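ok so heres the complex, two chains, lmk if somethin looks off
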Amino acid sequence: MIKKVLALLKKDLLLELRQQHTFYGILLYIAATVYVLHLSLPDSPDANVWNSLFWVIQLFVCVNTVAKSFLQESKGRMLYFYSIASPVEFILAKLLFNIILMLFMSLVSLLLFYVFLDNPVSNMGLFIGIVLLGGTGISLVFTLMSAIAAKAQQNAALIAILGFPVILPQLLLLMRLSKAAFAEVFREGAVLQLAGLVAGLDVLVIMMAVILFPYLWKD
Amino acid sequence: MYTVTGGFLMEVPHLHILNETIRNLYFHVSMWFAMMILFIVSFVYSIKYLRNFDYRNDIFARNFAAMGSFLGILGYATGTVWASYTWVTDQGQSLANILKEPKLIGAAIALLIYGAYFVLRGSFTDIDKRARVSAVYNIFAFVMLFPSIWIIPRLVGSLHPGAPGGEGGNPALNFNDIDSRLRMVFYPAVIGWTLLGVWIATLKIRIELIKDKSLLHG
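and the predicted structre for the whole thing:
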């Protein structure tokens, strides 16, 4: 099973490397967005503004990155996967692939934020950790949403509608959590508690995906 | 079912007589209770649908969710009225401030989720597909709703006791402060609203079952 998951993952990665236009498209999207922010914001935004802008951009990047993961699969190809893999393997491969992609995009946008907007982060290591954790969580939720939306016709807008309310609690947690990296003092253990909660939500989403995806799969 | 519902319905009208802000407890709080219960019922029916793909369960799930959102909107409305009398005047908070209160965020998320659920339903033409996919979303959304409504407000509140508009600062939301006389009416009100919701939902369900009779029995 792990072998199959890895094979599917490899296929997705290869596909991404070969069809580079979408990949660069998203990179450009991030760059353009951050540049617009750079021009429209005052020189050094407040740490809170920076934080919320960062996470909102993360959210939109994720919608754009993950959205196509199910849309790009044509009907014939889906049928092919259907015959060679079980739904659980398929969704796990997709989840993994999107996590990898999203982690990469998160780091890129963090770098761009660092370059174009000032850097209020005092504890960089911690913040990178939080960003990676957050990117994982967001991409997990949106992968499942994209699987659902792919079943409906007008999908791109639907992903945002379906995903935003579901992602909100997680995003709020992340924003709170990342304030720890802005030298805000937390109660002892509170950071770990919050991080644990976010990680717990991630595990929950994975479990839900594994349980529910087989129902979406059959057509 | 009818008689039980009717019996408890009596409880609701006689609450209308009294008019002080704390009376809103009977409507606002119990509406939220009823909403949660209806959402739970809808969730259970979605699971049942995925277990046996009986179209009947889908009708149940949808109507309970619809009724739950309706009560949710009513609850939001009564909550606004209540808040404008207690929070705004007493503490001089602005509306935007209040909207950031953790409980309200949870409530707004719940309403958005079920709004999305109906949009999702609307975007399908094929009945079976619609039922299946929206059942999946219903289950997923409900499970994600748990943390947003039940855990996060408490967690954020516990991290920041006495935060403006936070849980700790508002005795109105603290159930331990409810007087036992209020409780006498409060619990039946919860049951009454719930049963009212269930009653309306079942009415709608029965109408739909009749409409789709040919579909259900082939």
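quick notes: Chain B touches chain A at residues 50, 105-106, 109, 112-113, 115-116, 119-120, 123-124, 129, 132-133, 135-137, 139-141, 143-144, 147-148, 151-152, 155-156, 159 (CB under 8 Å). thats all i got rn
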